[in-house]
Amino acid sequence: MPEHDRIFERIIGNSAALESVLEQVEQVASTDSTVLIEGETGTGKELVAHAIHNGSQRVGRAFIKLNCAAIPLDLLESEMFGHEKGAFTGAIAQKIGRFEMADKGTLFLDEVGDIPSALQPKLLRVLQEQEFERLGSGRTHKVDVRLVAASNRSLVRMVARGQFRSDLYYRLNVFPVLLPALRERREDIPALVTHFVKLFSRRMGKQVETIPPETMAAFQSYSWPGNIRELQNLVERGIILTRDGVLHNPLHKDQKELMIPSLYRTRIFYSSKTLGASDRALILETLEQARWVVGGPHGAAAKLGLKRTTLLTMMTRLAISRPIHQERADERGTTLQ
Question: Helix or strand or coil: residue 116?
Fold first, then answer.
């Protein structure tokens, strides 16, 4: 297998957006530089981290991963750096942390934006000095670890809001890689669907011989807010429901309402302070289509890819309020906020 194919064997697609990312990965993989992968949930950040490791000189060493959002905050420091027996209540034995496990290899810190502020200086130190102490120990341990970090939130915005240390951000952001959302690489959808159909057909022992054109068209028209992970799960659902060798269309009614063309998932609001007439028109259109429901999975905020509170702030700045006839409809209980 050629070197390029070996590194990227689990990454499916050949769109221009994806190829641009893979070119960056290939350039940085052979170095020991820290990489920060940013992108929406479900875009394949862990696969890219694996590709960076596989293309490096550390490929024969450990690839250790830690999802910072999945570990309780009071245990995260122990998970990273380990602890000695008796370091805290419940520490009944010595524990090796992920940095120590990844010595001479690669450590992948997923959702790095969820690291609490009290722990951020300790992470900065180990990145700068390649040394740390286990909890409950005064002994300093030296490590040789290549770090790949990932976040589905904008760390630079978190820095601006005082939620993330600027010095740690600059240390992580040595080589940034931004993964495109699935809606930005639609030409890759047929290859991804075919890949997942083969994968789940084999696992379930089912024979799926045909993917109807209308089903593939539906896949290519859907907005995919959950990106590749959502596509994978829906194909799995389609295989489960398939009985006649023809892939069942797993998109249900609510999802079909999110078909493209639509501006909702591609419009980017950079700042509520720079909103203009086009933003106001888009928000009004979205609110009308959502029957002035702001929150919830089918509300205007979700359609625009915003938090409910962010949209309410924008509505205030743009002097957008519900029409009187809609307020009366709300009073009759026909529309929910």
Answer: coil
Query: Which ranges constitute the DSSP H helices of the chain?
Result: 3-7, 16-29, 45-54, 73-81, 98-101, 120-129, 155-160, 166-172, 189-204, 213-221, 227-241, 253-256, 277-289, 300-304, 308-317, 324-331
Instruction: Please classify residue 243 by burial: count the beta carbons closer than 10 Å to its beta carbon, then call 0-12 exposed, 13-18 middle and 19+ buried.
Output: exposed
Phi, psi of 210 (to 5 degrees): -135, 135
Whether 75 contacts 87, CB under 8 Å? no
Q: Which residues contact 180 (CB under 8 A, 6 or more apart)?
A: 15, 17, 18, 21, 39, 43
Average pLDDT, the chain: 86
pTM exceeding 0.85: no
Q: 183-256 has which CATH code? A: 1.10.8.60
CB atoms within 10 A of CB 169: 18
Radius of gyration of the chain (CA): 23
Could you please state the CATH topology (level 3) that the domain comprising 3-180 is classified under: Rossmann fold (3.40.50)
261 upstream amide cis, omega within 30 of 0: yes
Q: Taking 70 as the threshold, does the pLDDT of residue 326 lie above it?
A: no
Q: What is the pLDDT of residues 126-169, one digit of tens each?
A: 999 999 998 888 889 999 999 999 999 999 999 999 999 999 99
CA dist 162 → 60, 144, 205 (Å):
39, 30, 52
